[in-house]
Amino acid sequence: MSDTFAASPARLRGTALGAIFASVALRRGIAVACTALLVLEKLVAVLLPLIFVKLLAQGTQGAQGELAPSMLLLALFCAAGVAVVCLSEYREVRFLSILQNAQKALVQQALAAFHRKPQAFFAAHASPELTRAVNRAAWSVDAIFSIGFFNILPTVLQVLFACGVLWVHLSALHAALLLLMVGLLVSMTYRSVNTQQALYRERIREDNRINAVLADSLVNAETVRAFGGIGFELERLSARQARLDVAWRRQQTQLSAGKCAQASLIQLSQFVLLGATVLASTGTGIGTAELGVGLVMVSMYVAQVFGPLESVGLLYSSFTHAFIDLRELDALTRDAPPAPEAKAAADAPEAPEAPAPAPLQAQCVSVAVDGKTLLDAVSLRLPARGKIALVGPTGSGKTTLARALTGMGPLSAGRLLLNDVPATPETMLRHALYVSQTTGLFDDTLEYNIGYGNREVQAAQLGAAVERAQLASMLKEREAGLASPCGELGARLSGGERQRIAVARALLNARPVMVFDEITAQLDAVTETAIFAALDRLAQDALVVHVTHHLEMVADAERIFCFAGGRLAEQGTHDELMRNRGGYAALWDARMQALGVRPLLGKAA
After folding, report:
1. In the prediction, which pLDDT does 92 show?
2. 436 pLDDT exceeds 50?
3. Which of the chain's termini has less CB crowding within 10 Å, N or C?
4. Cβ-Cβ contacts under 8 Å for 576 (sequence gap 6 or more)
5. How far apart are CA 104 and CA 70, in angstroms?
């Protein structure tokens, strides 16, 4: 789809309208052909009343023995009716490829934009809100094409052609009256739709909130069941539904009032045009038969024009709603202006792609979220290879630093240096891999989840990663093996199985910097020891950083950094920190006591 995006104008690139414009531009031949079919269809449609009136005139003249011309006109009238339908359907079929490609481009563009967003964005926007916004925008593409190209534009052509015929066959007054009444109807519709837009936005906001409550409740189904919270969930949902009911009633009331006013104006228009035809025949010697033919022609053109216009309010309302949905999606995908620190990092020279390990340094790194400081002016230097540990009590800043070091979290101040060159978050995302304690699993097979991120993984590599991550026994228990489904968010797997899949995935996507955040918290001691042994082998060729509370597993680390209150409290080897008798020693003693081991001053045996 990169060609699709490139075809959009620069000022629209990256927007929903840009994706739509590009899809049309890349298939401009089909678009031109469909437009020609549309014009042809309306020309045939505007001939129908003329053919019928000609047929009626022949009948009123009482021609004897001249059935052939009448039958020919009748056949032509029926054939023209069929042609209008066939041309319309053929046009829709030809245009379908443009619609499909526009929807695909829009969804892909939105998904890519969401994945470039920082974690704070997903904290502020629930997943159901985002998926609903994408789905609504995708269907809005259909609305824009079907309403704009297949309804509004054809109606405009119909009005112009009808005015031309009335001018030629009746009078300029008839054409002027038709344009006047259409203009009044469009003006009324425009004012009504402007009110509808505000009411629609309000309804959509309440609808999004309901979907967020539903998703939140289902994701926490186990907690709801454990605490008997079904009643709480229904009350929460009912409160949201009540607000939606109010917003929906307000919108429907305004819409119904607008339809009634519109119907009154359409009937008035018909009265005015037919009345003008009757008045024009007074005193001109036009017979009853000719007057009847004129009234039939006016009635048919009024029906042709005002038939579609009866729903123009709803169509225009849907058309504007579609643009609202597209703008809502643009607001979600639009990049926020960077913070001063982030801009400074972006302006720094880009660190080179380093296929080999390189020293990593943090200089006065601070991270604050919602006014709360999570990391305060932390500076440290990490070697190119080896085993490093980040430890400390809960909430001390370990995970925040781990995410910052790998480009997964934004910096409020400070900078990162890779090989003594300032590195942007994008550089670190390519150079480092953060493996979270919360394993992200897709609703797909074990093979897909283990090999995720590595498009060129070979069967032998996959097998080796499975063995090193202690997954072989789990696969033997499943009849489908690697083809076994994981379920939504890994629902078919245990917590330990999910963590081992995360380790296997990381081994297949090894980078110069590997950060593991509590990735063995749900494993038994035997499996945990085996996995740490596998990661120790990885540390021979890369920098492996462990964030953990299991201090016994990192006591042999080359360097241990101990955090407290968002600051780096102390650093050193295990023996050095134990001799200091500071925060690390207190954590070690507490951990040994929890394991039933007598606290030692030296390295674990």
Report:
1. 76
2. yes
3. C
4. none
5. 52
Q: Give the whole-angstrom CA distance, residue 242 versus residue 240.
A: 5
| b/e per residue 78-115 (b: at least 16 CB within 10 A) | eebeebbeebbeebbeebeebbebbbbbbbebbeebbe
The SS3 call for residue 568 is strand
The pLDDT > 90 percentage for the chain reads 20
Q: What is the pLDDT of residue 562?
A: 96
Nearest CA among 294, 311, 35, 309 for reference residue 165: 294
Radius of gyration of the chain (CA): 35
Query: Which residues in 383-471 belong to E strands, given as ranges?
Result: 386-391, 413-418, 421-423, 432-435
Q: How far is Cα 414 from Cα 410, in angstroms, rounded to an integer?
A: 11
Q: Which of the listed ranges 186-200, 256-270, 396-410, 481-495 does the model predict with the highest average pLDDT?
A: 396-410
What is the Cα–Cα distance from 263 to 270, expressed in whole angstroms? 11
Sorted by where each starts, the structural domains of the chain and their CATH numbers stand as: 2-190+266-333 (1.20.1560.10), 356-595 (3.40.50.300)
CA distance 133 to 122: 14
CA neighbor of 363 nearest in space, from 346, 388, 341: 341
pTM over the 0.70 mark: no
Strand 386-391 to 543-547 pairing: parallel
* pLDDT surpassing 90 at residue 314: no
Phi, then psi, of 453 in degrees rounded to 5: 100, -15
> Residue 589 — pLDDT band, cuts 50, 70, 90?
very high
Whether the predicted pLDDT of 600 surpasses 70: no
Q: Specify which residues 366 forms β-bridges with.
A: 413
Q: Which of 302, 288, 306, 297 is CA-nearest to residue 52? A: 297
Is residue 484's pLDDT more than 50? yes
* Dist. CA 81–CA 303, nearest whole Å: 15
The enclosing H or E element of 335 equals none
Backbone angles phi, psi at 340, to 5 degrees: -55, -40
How much is the pLDDT for 89?
Answer: 79
Confidence band, pLDDT 50/70/90 cuts, at residue 392: very high
